[in-house]
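Structure request: 40S ribosomal protein S25, Ophiocordyceps sinensis.
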Amino acid sequence: MAPAAGAKKQKKKWSKGKVKDKAQHAVLLDKTTSEKLYKDVQSYRLVTIATLVDRMKINGSLARQCIADLEEKGIIKPVVTHSKMKIYTRAVGAN
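Returned structure:
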């Protein structure tokens, strides 16, 4: 015998998936971000491209240029300079 007509299974509803917010990072360094960069980086114990992107809301290529500028001015010093990952720390002492 066939099962009762009213006992049909519900049709599966597929989820839309997780929606990630698109990051709106700056591609140019404006005056306020520049001042914040030079003031705040002196207190960071770890300075990498990722930390600057996360904290300053700038994109990666701009973060690389900022790190090069900070190193040139003696605000940060390199700890590890591998081609894939450059790690810096604040420069303390005789500068």
